[in-house]
Each structure stands twice: as structure tokens, then as C-alpha cells.
Amino acid sequence: MAEAEILLAAPRGFCAGVDRAIEIVERAIAKFGRPIYVRHEIVHNTYVVNDLKEKGAIFIEDLADVPPGATLVFSAHGVPKSVEREAEARGFNVFDATCPLVSKVHVEVAKLRKEGYEFIMIGHKGHPEVEGTMGQLDGGIHLVEEVADVQRIHPEQTEKLAVVTQTTLSVDDAAEISAAVKARFPNVREPKQQDICYATQNRQDAVKFLSPQVDLVIVVGSPTSSNSNRLREVARKLGTESYMIDSADELKPEWLEGKARIGLTAGASAPDILVRRVIERLRELGAVSVRTLDGIEETVKFPLPKGLKLGDAGEVNLSHLR
Ligand code: 2E7
Ligand code: F3S
């Protein structure tokens, strides 16, 4: 990889929901002291989770592992109603770090259910966001993961059917599945805007712009991160070799052999410090320049929950992650 150039996708890395979720945990620790319990990984990133563990967060899946009176944070992916009810019943001091764009889907699902709707959810089975959204209802929500699944579901009626989606899907795959849903259920109600969020859309668009300009796309993200996996898929679908790495030491020198242009991006849960370390590693391996491609500028910012706003907990310095 002599004299190679690094091209950075834009936008990449942290979205507004991740920024907010991490800040909620940091502020909760600052305000209430350690430990703070977090249900599920706050975001799907190994570095972020380890960093917060060192600062006093304890990550659990089961609320039975949280002691009475503890402070508990729900992860950015959201929780089923049953978890919300259990946390309330056990009397925890709860802060909800569910991304507001996921909460919006939850509200919409509850509203349409009151109007008598049944749902088709497009998403990945077992993902916490899907469990959270499906768990807003006691049933009547049918999961579809791929086009073939559309023929396998059996709604009780077809007059009032609505589609909801996971926020981090492949935009193109979701469009294909939606079309199949529409073909089978012509009067299905679709979201006004897709439930796929702005950050997912923008990061996939940025990879579509990047891929044809490079010989290889490196995605920084953890294996559990849905949106990061989708970025690698988008690059591969366009015919560009692509790998996802959790940290710079996973970079394999042989991937770089004969490559003149290396594309680099990061999932919505991957901190910028990891991208900077990958750039350092690529320089050690022979990259000589770095250029950021043009892309949409993101200005979305979500407010913190009541009780953790500025001034409530003193300043928390997140600069190590940015
Ligand atoms: C919450 C939601 O933590 P992530 O890697 O999550 P995914 O859903 O991509 O596995 O990324 C941030 C995030 C994205 N969506 C958090 Cl609902
Ligand atoms: Fe929210 Fe989308 Fe980020 S759903 S957490 S803004 S990837």
C-alpha cells in the first residue's frame, strides 16, 4: 500500500441519539454516584461500554440483577412495556436513554393500536430495538425480516394494517420489503416518513458516494451494531471490498495490499477516537494523506431528560469520545 490516500465518509460516527444516551449515563454517574445500572449495552460499541464500566456503569440484561433503590438507565434501543412496568414496580430511579426517534415509533404504534390497527414490523429478530417496539403491544405485531416472510404472516384482518420499521435497516432492503408488503396488502398504512432514521440514511448515502471512489471500505463498528453492519453491506453491494473492525488492531495489513485509496467510515455508535486510531494505523502501514469527502452536515440534537439537564449534574466532559 505505498503512498495510499485515505478518504473519509461524511457524515460518519456518533448520531444525536448516541450522544444523548452516553451523556445520560455520564450525568447519572456524576449526579447519583457509582454504580449506575444500564439495561443492555447503552449503545452497541465495545469501547463505549468499557469506558462507561470504568466510570461506574454496570450493564445488565435482567432487572432481577439490579439492587433495590438503584438508578437504572434504559439503553438507546428502547425497551418493551413489560420492562418499563417491572422497573416501576421495583421502584428504581429510571432514566430513559431510548433514542427519541425510537420513542416516536413507540408512540405511533400505541396510537394506531387504539384505532384498531395490526402491525407488520420490518426488522431483525432478536435485536433489542425490535423487541422494544414489538413489546409496546401485547400482540398483533408481525415481524418480517425479508421479502419471503411477507407471505408467511397471518394477520387477523387486512383492513387496518400498518407498517413500522427498525430505525437502522438497509434503506434499499427495507424499500424492497415494503414493496412486497404493499403488493400483498394494498391498503396497508405506511409511515409518513420511513422509520429509518436520518443518521442511518445519511451514513448509508455517504458510503454509496465513497465506495466507487476507493479500493476498500473500512467500517469502524462493533459486531452487534446493526447500523454498522449495514454500512459494510452497502459497500459490498456496490462491489467494493469492505470490512468492519471494532478497533485499529483488527486491521489486517493484507487487506491493504495493492490498494491506492482506502475509504473509512464509522457506525452511529462508534466514537471518533477509534477512527483517529485507525487513521494512525493506516499511516504506519503507508497511507500518506487523508481527505474528507463532502456530505450532509447534521445538526440534530436531542434534549436530555428532566433531572439530568445542564446544571443538574455539573459539567460532564465527553471530549475523550469525540
Ligand atoms: C439505538 C438505536 O448502538 P447501535 O450500534 O445500534 P444498532 O441498532 O445499530 O444495533 O447504534 C446506535 C443506535 C441505533 N439505533 C442506538 Cl434504536
Ligand atoms: Fe437514534 Fe438513529 Fe442514532 S434511531 S440512536 S438517531 S442511529
What does this structure look like?
This protein has helices at 16-32, 46-55, 81-89, 100-114, 128-134, 171-184, 198-210, 226-237, 272-284; strands spanning 4-8, 36-39, 57-60, 71-74, 93-96, 118-122, 141-144, 161-165, 216-220, 241-245, 261-266, 287-292. It has 322 residues and is an alpha/beta fold. It folds into 3 domains: 5-13 and 198-292, 4-hydroxy-3-methylbut-2-enyl diphosphate reductase, catalytic domain (Cobalt-precorrin-4 Transmethylase, domain 1, 3-Layer(aba) Sandwich), CATH 3.40.1010; 16-99 and 301-321, Rossmann fold (3-Layer(aba) Sandwich); 101-184, 4-hydroxy-3-methylbut-2-enyl diphosphate reductase, catalytic domain (Cobalt-precorrin-4 Transmethylase, domain 1), CATH 3.40.1010.20. The strands form 3 sheets. Strands 10-9-11-1-12 form a 5-stranded parallel sheet, with helices on both faces. Strand 9, helix 8 and strand 10 form a beta-alpha-beta unit. The longest helix has 17 residues, at 16-32. It starts with a strand and ends in a 30-residue tail after the last strand. The structure holds (6-chloropyridin-3-yl)methyl trihydrogen diphosphate and FE3-S4 cluster (F3S). FE3-S4 cluster binds at residues 15-18, 76, 99, 101-102, 167-168, 197, 199-200, 227, 268.
Kindly list the characteristics that best describe this protein.
binds (6-chloropyridin-3-yl)methyl trihydrogen diphosphate, 322 residues, 9 helices, single chain, Cobalt-precorrin-4 Transmethylase, domain 1, 18% strand, 12 strands, 3 domains, binds FE3-S4 cluster, Rossmann fold, five-stranded parallel beta sheet, alpha/beta
